[in-house]
Amino acid sequence: MHRLVVIGGDAAGMSAASQARKRRGPDELQIVAFERGRATSYSACGIPYWISGAVEREEQLVTRTPEAHRRNHIDVRTRTEVVGIDVDARTVRACDLEGGTEYTEPFDDLVYAAGSVPARPPVPGVDAAGVYGVQTLDDGAALRAALTDEVHRVVIVGGGYIGLEVAEACQVRGLAVTVVDRSPTPVGMFDPDIGTFIADAVRGLGIELVLADAVSEIATDADGRACAVHTSSGRQLPADLVVLGVGVRPNVALAREAGIPLGPSGGIAVDHRMRTEAPGVWAAGDCVESIHRLSGQRVVVALGTHANKQGRVAGINLGGGYATFPGVIGTAITKVCDVEVARTGLSEAEAEAAGYRFVSAAVDSTTRAGYFPGAQPIRVKLVAEKRTGRLLGAQIVGRDDAAKRIDVLATAIWNEMHVDEVLSLDLSYAPPFSPVWDPVLIAARKAQDAVEAEFR
Amino acid sequence: MHRLVVIGGDAAGMSAASQARKRRGPDELQIVAFERGRATSYSACGIPYWISGAVEREEQLVTRTPEAHRRNHIDVRTRTEVVGIDVDARTVRACDLEGGTEYTEPFDDLVYAAGSVPARPPVPGVDAAGVYGVQTLDDGAALRAALTDEVHRVVIVGGGYIGLEVAEACQVRGLAVTVVDRSPTPVGMFDPDIGTFIADAVRGLGIELVLADAVSEIATDADGRACAVHTSSGRQLPADLVVLGVGVRPNVALAREAGIPLGPSGGIAVDHRMRTEAPGVWAAGDCVESIHRLSGQRVVVALGTHANKQGRVAGINLGGGYATFPGVIGTAITKVCDVEVARTGLSEAEAEAAGYRFVSAAVDSTTRAGYFPGAQPIRVKLVAEKRTGRLLGAQIVGRDDAAKRIDVLATAIWNEMHVDEVLSLDLSYAPPFSPVWDPVLIAARKAQDAVEAEFR
Q: What is the CATH number for B308?
């Protein structure tokens, strides 16, 4: 019988397994999935909300348990780490982390979905006790357990999405929170003008933000436990607990050893059907690189939504169907307390780096008709190519019901719309939902004015 | 000096005037705008919320007063009705409704933006006292004034958007409300399966819905005041007050008399720059017909968002610029209490009528990650062309933060996307905003399955 081995039991790996199983029954295809942790198919993005208490139980974050996958005839082996791949021999070497035994498992097709590993700043003390990650469900459980009554001061290293989400979670729990980030504004994927709004919102929550400063050391006490974070500028931030939220990098060590080629971004190189360059080896999720449809560059974007889609594509193709993953455009969204932020396409800095000449325009409007109760402020910023007016990027910051509008602009960018086309879009209007000119359209109008001004 | 006369001082007319003024100063262009009512540039769509009390003051609904327009060098003449147009002589005949005097005003260019008139069912009693419309700000003021303590029972004729919005407004004010509609489900622009959700929501508010039944008579008392609504099926619904919410038709009487050609839909025929077939005569807003980009038909869609866009386009062109209005795709949204509904493109019935062979797919999901507090139910229904999979239409019903997602699908339809392309879209994801597969993507997946099933 044909044998499919999957490395990694989260979104990408299990989507691939499930899709393949949907198309090929257990009498046609045997599927074995290895997962280092205890859980499968869980929402890592939900961990900050589990830490804050908004989500009460770990099980709520799990979409499909190992048992559920097994009922679907997928042989899931949790707490089992794949420690070697032999592409020529068509085998993987697996290690049962509980029993410590190692064994070999043959495959015809392999899906490499090993996800990512947290980036660790190369500073002294980074491996000390009291320093936590927030990447896996097991990480989340460890951090939750560590947040005892003795913990009062938390320092978060990294002011990106995850860093801020965890900062808010800790703040909600009544802790004194400091976030350290190298950039002059948090969430560096936003232009500084939008980042300033985010910074204000974070500070408004009572979270201390230390910006434009780098962590130089995690100081430890006599027991070797983290007790403070030191920065390049000389700050010494006392900490009962340190959380690393500096992002992730693709978990490719095993693939690299096995000779599965990586791409220029450091992620595994795959084609649009999620095939690696090694025959019969597929890859999906946080460990692969994708094409950015605007810059043309290969990029690694660790996001559950891409992992799910890529896994699905791999699984359909493995199951004898045809599906493709046509790339990403850098859409992202988050919420810091009641401030919502989102982006898609290229920021000004990214447009610059990609060699575009551009104009940008920002407008302030409201989420509902101005007179309608509950109308909230929203700022929409667009980046458009000079001369052609092609929409290159969008950023939104606002309150309730603001940020999800980014999807309209993501769809417009995906379709290579120009801002004058965007402003003709037949978007929905009623006073509880939008001003008569939706903020997206007002922004397009202003961007179009900026494009036209270039010709005068 | 070049003279521009505008008939109608609301969204379309005043947008045209303002855009023309922006491009041509008062030394180049004289602008006179006639408005029958007291107000200019107001939100008719906001009237139900003024009636409910959610919007407190009439002024809140007014974007720009006559005085504000006058400061912008637009000679606004309120309470002045244009009673005749002589296209050859290049004059209009205006009647001052306060003083009763008539006079002639010359024009070089004319913008006809007379809006719409409420449809009135051709039944006895429709013109009786106690029967109200909700179309203009003056209508709204009259209805508000009529809702005295003596009024307890209100019957609304018509269960479309406006009918339901007014029904809810009256219900909020503590009145006993009955809505009568000819269709078997309210808001006929939705497929019956979605309409059933709306009906349930409306009834859940305590509003009585009389469906699949037509008004046969508005009965009057000895004073000639409306006192009951009788229906074809023999129902007699007592009413202290009757509201007509059966929709509107384009206000074209004056244009027709003047020989300005109408189109097949009964609206004024315009090209994509908002020119009528009469030289130097432009038209915009509820009185014109637009191209439906999916059916190819000419349609009249009375919506503030189109009126604003069309007025802007006419004004830019009048001001020497170049702009076009490329048509509509039938996007609409409303809210009945906490149930949100929206649609875009073609419903099943409309797809049928337009000659498409189609499949449809509906999915139930949540507005946020299922485990995230505040996640609400959302149903997304898609209509896609058989064989090609081209997205033809979408309908959404749900609670908080559900319906505005229709804009993503409107943008997808606008760009002629196919459902398999939709499901690859890089839409934003974070647990407070969406499940990892946004409901829009889940619906696209199911629609794609339906398309593919046709080939098996």
A: 3.50.50.60
